[in-house]
Amino acid sequence: MKEERSKSPFIDSSNSSIMEELIHFHSEEISFELPHPILIREWLKKSIESERKVLQELSFVFCSDDYLHQLNLEYLSHDTLTDIITFDYSEGQSIAGDIFISVDRVKENSQELNTEFQTELNRVMIHGVLHLCGYKDKSAEEQATMRAKEDFYLNLQAENG
Description:
Helix content: 40-55%
Number of helices: 6
CATH architecture: 3-Layer(aba) Sandwich
Strand order of the largest sheet: 1-2-4-3
Low-confidence stretches: 1-16
Largest sheet: 4 strands, mixed
Distance between the termini: 21 Å
CATH topology: Collagenase (Catalytic Domain)
């Protein structure tokens, strides 16, 4: 994946190669390139730091509904479609994990919610990161907290370009 170098005032270009080593973007069974990966890496890193956590290593894998459904069956015994599965390898304050995202699901959700695809994708990405930071979403109260945190970090991203 070819990445563009940004002239954004929010990016420390001397740090961009380190960020590439800590946050990886891949695709499985589909052809997908994340727009503006450098900006997204910086946003995710700042979000993690705002949660008083330390980024160790993250891999985002963008895939199809079928691919994620198979993971859901194999690892979680859930026979349902989902937009994201997060495998947490974090220890203490260090954040590490694999985050699998169904691009099919995100597209469908963005259409149903009448929002831009990239906005919904960013929401799902930060949702996975927040799980790694320790947030849950099983109860109504946890879901409300998760949604508020997602909104906060989406607004942070919008402010920083």
